[in-house]
Design brief:
Two copies of one chain form a homodimer. The first copy, chain A, is an alpha+beta fold. Helices cover 25% and strands 29% of the residues of chain A. The first copy, chain A, has 14 helices and 32 strands. Chains A, B: This is Proline--tRNA ligase.
C-alpha cells in the first residue's frame, strides 16, 4: 500500500525536542518516527513501526537460520523464579517491581533466563531433546537511573533475547559460536558497523562473554583495540603482569618523615633525595596508593575495603565493579564508591594521606600480618619483590622500599586502575588504542548457574541426571534503530541504510498542474506492483521546499521527484546520501528504481 | 520452513492441567500452544505464536482496509494522563500500579484512550487533518480479581485497540460504522461466530456502544435476542414502559395490619381478602419491593439508596451498576451491593420488612415529600397511576393501593431487575430469549469525554477551535484464539479453522522403512515450495498411535498420512473435523492439497 503523506499520521518538526542530547534522538522525533511518552519510554508512529518491522524481520530470519525457535514470554512475571536465582535481590533498584491486588510480588522482566530455564525444564527430560535454542522479540523493562539519548537507553525497549540449552560445554560452545556468527550477519545486514569485544559477564554470571559494540563517539562504553586485532571492553582488559622479582638482596624498607610532600611528584622527589636507589630513580609508578572504597552488596550490606594501586594510575571504579563480586563472595552486581568521611571515621587505624598496606601498624614493615581486618586487594602490577613508596600509617610519614611479598601481603589481586592508550594488549598484539561504543548485542556462556538454581537436569547418554549448560544472547532491537540513525545522518536528517528504510522510494510530486500528480500516481502504482514500497508526498498545497525538507529529514535513501522535468519527459532520481541527482526517462523510471533498490 | 516434530519445541500432554476449567484452556496447554507463567499470565510456544501471527494478520489487514494506521504505544505509562480523565481513580483495584525508583506513579495500561488523544493533540491542529483512525496490536494489563479459563480472562493479554478522531458526530458515526463492518469481516475470516449486541458504555463513558459476543455456554456475558432480530447485552435491555394511568378515580390507599405475611404470595392473598380490587385481583407484580442498596463510588464514598421494583422480579445488581453512575453524578464504575445490617442501623427510619417509598413517614400516602433523605429510584414499570402493595414504614403494616405519582414520587428511573426470557424486546420484535457469550470485541462512540479532559481541539472550517469527537474499538486477540479453540474442538483435540491453523497440513510418516520418510520429505518439500506450511511428524521412534493422537490434539485441519498405502502408490488425506479419509495417488497429492487448502 502506497503511504501517502496527505493522510499519513505524521508531522515533522522544525525544532529539536528540548530533551534530546544526541542526533538520533533529535532526528527520530523530528522526522516523526517516535514520540516520548515518559522518561525513557516511547511511542512508535507509523513510519517508526515500518523500520522496526524491517529490523525484526532480519533478526528473525537469522535466528531461524541457526535453528532457533521463536516463543514469547510475558513481561509481567512473578517474583519466585527470580528469587531462586537471587536476581530479585541482585537487581536492586534496576527493575520495576509491583504487587497485584492480592499483594503478590511481580516484576517487569529485564531479561528472561529464569523463565526459559523453567520452560525447558517443563518440556524436556533427555539429552536427546538437546540442543534447543529459543528466542523471542519482546518488550523489556529496566528502571534506569538515567534514561537518556532517546531509544539508546530506555526504560521500556524491545530486545531479541535467545537462550541455548546444551548437554555439555562443547555443545554450548557450538551454540555460542552459531549465535556469534548470526550476530555478525544481523549487523552486517542492518548496515551497522560492529566490533565484537571480550567482555565481563557482570550480573549475568557465567564464564565467556562478548559484547557487540557499535563504535560511536556518543557511546557509553569504552573499549580498546590493538593493531594486532585485540579488542575488549575496558572492564575486560587484563593487565600484562610483570614477572616476580627476587628480593633476597633488597635493602630494608625505611620509614621517613615526609613533610611538604602534598603530591606524588613531591613525594617521589623526596624519596630520590632521602633514600635514592642504586639501579634507577623512584618514579610515580613506584608509589603505592592505598584507596579506601565502600562496596554496596545487593543484600544492602556495605563493606569497607582497601585497594593498593600504582600511584601513576587512576582508580577505575567500573573495572573494579566488573570483578569485585567474586572477591566478596557475592552474587550479582556490587556497586563501588570511594569511602566517605563517615566510613573512615569508623576505622581510626586508617591515617588519612598516609595509609599503608599494613593498615594499623606502628611498624609497616610487618606488613599484612596485623591489619585492621579490612580486606586488602592490589593491582596486578603489585607482584612479589616489587619495591614501593607508600604511606607509613603514621601522620606525616612514608615508607620507602617496602617490598611486596616480603614486607606486606594482600587478600587478592584485582583490575583496579584505568586502561590507558599505549598499554600493551594482553595477547601481545601491540599497544592499545581506546574508542567509544554502544552495546548492540551481548552473548554469554552462562554455564550451569541458572540450570542449577532452578533444577534443570536431563538424563544423559548413560541414564544419569545431568545439569544442562546454557547460553544467553541479546540484541537491542529498538537501540539498533537509534544507532542506525546516529551513524547515518547529516545536518538535514536521517539517511537510512536501504535494508531498514521505512520505504524503498520517497516519491515527491511538485508543481501546480495536475500532470505531475497524475504521473506520480502512475509511477507509484507501477512501483508498488513491482513490490517496492513507496512513500508518496501527494500533498497538493505544500511547497517544494517543504516537501524536499521533509524527504531529507525522513531519510528514505532514494528520493524521486516528479516535477519540472516532466515537460521534457524525465523524472529526477536523487541519492539522499550523496545528493547526486540524475534524470531518467519517464518510461524507464520504474525499471531503473527496481534495479537501484534491489536488495 | 517445514516444522519438524523431531526438533519442534513441543511436548504434548496426556493429562489436563489441574487449573483448567474449560476445554480451550485444557487443549491449548495440552497441545503445546501456551504454558501458564502466573495466574492469568501465559507464555506462547512456537505453535501458539503461529496461530497468533495469523490472527493478527487478519486483523491488521482489515484495519488497514478502513484506512486505520498502525502505531504502537508503551504498556508502562505515567499516571498523569489517566488522572486528567479520572480513570486513575476510577479503575480502582482493576489495574496494575507501580512506582519507579524516583517514586513517580505509573500504571500498566489496560487501554489507551488517553495516550492516543494526547498523540493526536501533539500532531494535529486542523479539521483538515481529520478523520484519523489509529490502531495498535499491543499487550494490555488488567489486575482481574478472578483470572480464569486460560486466555479467556487473563491479566496480560493482547488486544487490537483502535481510536477514531472526527470533527463532528456525523463523521464519528461513519468511523464507527467502518469499524463495525471491519469487525464483522474480521470474525468471519477468523471463523468465529459473532453476534453484535447493543451494550452499555460502562467505565468508558460515551453514548453508543456495541459488543461483539461469541455465543458459547461458558461465556460470562448473558445476552438476549428476539426472533425479530433484536440483540442486546442484558445490561443494555430497556424495559418496555407501560403507559401512564389516569388516577383521578382511584380509591385512596389503605394501611392494614398484615400479620402472618412472611412471603409476597401470603401478602398478595391478604390484600385480595382485606382490600380487593374491582377490576382484577392483586398479583405479585402489583407489590412494590423497596430494596436498600449501598453504592461504592470510585472515590471510596459509600452512598445508601433505595430502589423500588415489582415484587415478582429479582433485583439485578449488574444492570443497576451499568447505569447507576449517571444517577449519582459519578464518573467511572460504581459497585453496588445489598446494604449491610450496619448500613441499615444508620437509618432508623427504614423499618426492615416494611419499607415503603415514603421512607420515614407515619402516613405513607404523603409520599416522597418527607423521605429520610435517601435517594429513591424505581424500576421503569413504576409509572404514574400504577397502584401498589408496599410497606407502610411501620412494623407489621403494609399499604394497599398506593398510587405512583399521587401518593409517592421518586428521584429517577433505573433498569434494576432481571431480564427474563419471554419479556418483550424493546423494539417490538417479539419475546426475548437468553444466551451466553464471550465479549470478543467492543466498539464505543466515546464522544468528547476524553478530548475535553485532555484538551484535544482543532480549528474547524470557520477557524474556530472545536473539540474533537472520538470512538474507541477493541478486539481481544489472545481471547479470540481461546474462543476459536473453545468452539472448534472434540474430545480428541482442537480443530482449527483453516485461516488460523498453525500449518496448512499436518504430515505424518508412519512405518519402519526409510521409504515412507523419503516420500514424506519429498512431499513436504513440494508443498513448501507451493507456499503451503507443513507440520511434519518425522519422529522415527514414535508409534503411529502417538503420532495420530498428537495430530488430532494439535488440530491442523488436514492430516496427511504417508504410511502403509505407499506400497500401493497412495497417500491418505484425512479431514480432522469429519474424520473422513481418502487415498490420493502419490504424484497427485501435492496438487490435491494445494486445492484443498486454497484460502
Amino acid at each position: 500500500m502506497v503511504l501517502r503523506l496527505s493522510t499519513l499520521f505524521l508531522r515533522t518538526l522544525r525544532d529539536d525536542p528540548a530533551d534530546a542530547e544526541v542526533a538520533s534522538h533529535r532526528l527520530l522525533v523530528r522526522a516523526g518516527y517516535i514520540r516520548r511518552a515518559a522518561p525513557g519510554i516511547y511511542s512508535w508512529l507509523p513510519l517508526g513501526l515500518k523500520v522496526l518491522a524491517k529490523v525484526e524481520a532480519v533478526i528473525r530470519e537469522e535466528m531461524e537460520e541457526i535453528g532457533a525457535q521463536e516463543v514469547h514470554f510475558p513481561a509481567l512475571l512473578p517474583k519466585e523464579p527470580y528469587e531462586a536465582t537471587n536476581r530479585w535481590t541482585e537487581y536492586g533498584d534496576g527493575i520495576f517491581r509491583l504487587q497485584d491486588r492480592k499483594g503478590a510480588d511481580y516484576l517487569l522482566a529485564p531479561t528472561h533466563e529464569e523463565m526459559f530455564t523453567l520452560l525447558v525444564k517443563d518440556l524436556y527430560t533427555s539429552y536427546k531433546d538437546l540442543p534447543v535454542r529459543l528466542f523471542q522479540i519482546q518488550t523489556k523493562y529496566r528502571d534506569e537511573a538515567r534514561p537518556r539519548a532517546g531509544l539508546l537507553r530506555g526504560r521500556e525497549f524491545i530486545m531479541k533475547d535467545s537462550y541455548s540449552f546444551d548437554i555439555d560445554d562443547e555443545a554450548l560452545e557450538e551454540s555460542y559460536q552459531l549465535h556469534r556468527a548470526a550476530y555478525v550477519r544481523i549487523f552486517e545486514r542492518l548496515g551497522l558497523e560492529i566490533i565484537p569485544v571480550t567482555a565481563t559477564a557482570g550480573a549475568m554470571g557465567g564464564s565467556k562473554s562478548e559484547e557487540f559494540l557499535h563504535p560511536t563517539p556518543i557511546g557509553e562504553d569504552t573499549f580498546v583495540r590493538s593493531a594486532g586485532g585485540y579488542t575488549a571492553n575496558v572492564e575486560a582488559v587484563s593487565t600484562v603482569v610483570p614477572a616476580a622479582l627476587d628480593f633476597t638482596t633488597a635493602p630494608a624498607a625505611e620509614v621517613h618523615d615526609t613533610p611538604d610532600t602534598p603530591t606524588i611528584s613531591t613525594l617521589v622527589d623526596h624519596a630520590n633525595a632521602a633514600a635514592p636507589r642504586d639501579d634507577r630513580a623512584w618514579t610515580a609508578a613506584d608509589t603505592l596508593k592505598n584507596v579506601v572504597l565502600a562496596a554496596r552488596l545487593p543484600t544492602g550490606e556495605r563493606e569497607i575495603l582497601v585497594v593498593g594501586v600504582p600511584g601513576d594510575r587512576a582508580v577505575d571504579l567500573k573495572r573494579i565493579e566488573a570483578t569485585i563480586a567474586g572477591h566478596l563472595g557475592s552474587g550479582g552486581e556490587v556497586a563501588v564508591e570511594t569511602a566517605t568521611e563517615e566510613d573512615l571515621a569508623k576505622h581510626p587505624g586508617l591515617v588519612k594521606g598516609y595509609i599503608g598496606p599494613g593498615l594499623s601498624l606502628e611498624d609497616p614493615v610487618l606488613g599484612a600480618d596485623a591489619t585492621t581486618g579490612l580486606r586488602y586487594l592490589v593491582d596486578p602490577r603489585v607482584v612479589s619483590g616489587t619495591a614501593w613508596i607508600t604511606g607509613a600509617n603514621q601522620p606525616g610519614r612514608h615508607v620507602f622500599g617496602l617490598i611486596a611479598g616480603r614486607d606486606f601481603g594482600w587478600d587478592g589481586t584485582i583490575e583496579a586502575v584505568e586502561v590507558r592508550e599505549g598499554d600493551e594488549a594482553p595477547d601481545g598484539s601491540g599497544p592499545l588504542i581506546a574508542a567509544r561504543g554502544i552495546e548492540m548485542g551481548h552473548i554469554f556462556q552462562l554455564g550451569r548457574k541458572y540450570a542449577e538454581a532452578l533444577g534443570l537436569k536431563v538424563l544423559d547418554r548413560n541414564g544419569k541426571l545431568t545439569t544442562v549448560t546454557m547460553g544467553s544472547y541479546g540484541v537491542g532491537v529498538t537501540r539498533a534503530i537509534a544507532a542506525l540513525a546516529e551513524s547515518n545522518h547529516d545536518d538535514r536528517g536521517i539517511i537510512w541504510p536501504r535494508n531498514v528504510a521505512p520505504a524503498d522510494v520517497h516519491l515527491v510530486a511538485t508543481g501546480k498542474g495536475t500532470e505531475v500528480y497524475e504521473a506520480a500516481e502512475k509511477l507509484a502504482a507501477e512501483l508498488e506492483s513491482d513490490g517496492l514500497t513507496v512513500l508518496y508526498d501527494d500533498r497538493p498545497k505544500v511547497s517544494p521546499g517543504v516537501k524536499f525538507g521533509d524527504a531529507e529529514l525522513i531519510g528514505v535513501p532514494t528520493i524521486v521527484v516528479v516535477g519540472r522535468g516532466l515537460a521534457e519527459g524525465v523524472i529526477e532520481v536523487r541519492d539522499r546520501r550523496t545528493g547526486e541527482a540524475q534524470n531518467v526517462a519517464v518510461d524507464e523510471t520504474a525499471a531503473f528504481l527496481r534495479r537501484l533498490t534491489a536488495h
